[in-house]
Amino acid sequence: MWVSFLLRRGAALVATIIVASAVVFLAVSLTPGDPAVLLSGTTRPSAEQLSAVRAEYHLDEPIWVRYGLWLQGILGGDIGRSFVYNISVGDLVGPRLETSLLLVLYAAILIIVVGVGTGIWGALRPRAGRSIVVGSAIAMGAPTFVMATLLSWVFATQLGWFPVYGAGSGFSDMLWHLTLPAVSLSLAYIAYVSRITRTAVVGEMDAEHVQTAVVRGIPSRLIVQRHVLRNAAAPITTVTGITIAGLLAAAVVVEQAFGLDGIGSLLVASAAAKDIPVVQAIVLGIVILFALMTTAVDILNASLDPRLRTVGARR
Predict the structure, then answer these.
(1) Which of 108, 165, 216, 249 is the most exposed place for a label (fewest CB within 10 A)?
(2) All structural domains of the chain
(3) What span, in angstroms and rounded, lies between the C-alpha atoms of 85 and 38?
(4) How many CB atoms lie within 10 A of CB 22?
(5) What are phi and psi of 177, to 5 degrees?
(6) pTM of the full predicted structure?
């Protein structure tokens, strides 16, 4: 049963990535503008120059042929060459990936610790719960860029506690530089996860088997650990996992606000310059990471609740 479930999820993951790669390639390739003009190196290329460039980069081939060549290159470890910088996309993205992944990891830890923690605390403490509901509503309504600007102005410009721009060098220095960006990135998600966690825990506390355990005089700590949190884990895990999976895409705004040299800022610059291979590689990478994360969440939920392993098989 467990092996069958893993095989189904693995097949679904592969199919998702293949479909996503086609959508990404088509969406980016069909954007307005002629990349041959950029690749020619001149502002007014002749028809002969454009024809030569299109032939060299297979731009004169049908789009399905270009997609096949692109996919073949990816499977062979070649994700393309930047039109603007004329270097491998991997060499261009690699140095920036560390900053983005550390930012996302930092934000993810804040979401898990603070979001889930305050949600559980608010469910077990009704007075605190009402404050959390109000606070989460305010945090969820604030745009990320506005929050980033506000936090930067207060804690960096006015108080001088944190740097205004850059990612720093060295692990501890990077953590210091990325604290405000991570808080800005995670704040709305912390509020959302906290609200979902509180709702799930409160719902389980009102369940009949939990109330029966209370009447039997079982200590509250054991009731929360053995019954409430265990049964509320599935929705909390799902929401938290999907939220974290989307952080890399959301980090684009934060990287711009704090001047971080990550893949988000590279994506914006590449899109503006019509650097198609870079845009395609970054967007596909984000989609793949999202698919991997959601698959991991499904597997984790199935390990918590064995009944979920047979859901797909019964359809």
Answers:
(1) 216
(2) 2-75 (no CATH), 89-314 (1.10.3720.10)
(3) 11
(4) 13
(5) -65, -30
(6) 0.80
